[in-house]
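Anyone up for a design puzzle?
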């Protein structure tokens, strides 16, 4: 089967057009090359969202790695995030706690409250994450330890 390209029309703001043109000029490429790169990069980052078989904790890295920007751009609140991540989960071990997803959704907007809430949810240290550690870094560490790395430890006895 041949790979076919399709022409599409996309409405973007004037500032974005100027940025695309500036990047293209500096790289010595066409505007369309920059736009294709942006689309491919974004789709690569969001790839798991396109797989209807990926749910729960397996989908969590998409939102953790994309950070608050993804949630803000698509205007995803906590309830919608819970619905997206946990929809279709059959295994209770794969569910992501709604309070963790709420915390993730707050990380970009209500950082002070999210930092305090994260401290309450963390099992280990009773103190806030170091100020040198950003909220996003602390949240990534917490969620990965709870949902990704913990599940590996449970699956591998003796580790």
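Challenge accepted. My sequence:
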């Amino acid at each position: 089967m041949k790979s076919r390209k399709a022409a599409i029309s996309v409405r973007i703001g004037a500032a974005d057009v100027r940025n695309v043109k500036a990047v293209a000029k500096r790289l010595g490429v066409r505007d369309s090359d920059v736009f294709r790169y942006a689309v491919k990069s974004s789709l690569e980052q969001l790839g798991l969202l396109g797989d209807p078989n990926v749910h729960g904790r397996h989908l969590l890295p998409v939102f953790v790695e994309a950070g608050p920007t993804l949630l803000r751009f698509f205007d995803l609140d906590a309830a919608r995030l819970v619905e997206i991540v946990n929809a279709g989960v059959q295994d209770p071990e794969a569910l992501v706690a709604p309070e963790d997803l709420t915390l993730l959704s707050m990380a970009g907007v209500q950082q002070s409250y999210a930092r305090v809430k994260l401290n309450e949810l963390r099992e280990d240290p009773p103190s806030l994450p170091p100020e040198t550690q950003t909220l996003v870094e602390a949240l990534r560490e917490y969620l990965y330890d709870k949902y990704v790395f913990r599940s590996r430890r449970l699956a591998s006895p003796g580790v």
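A detail worth pointing out: The mean pLDDT is 83.
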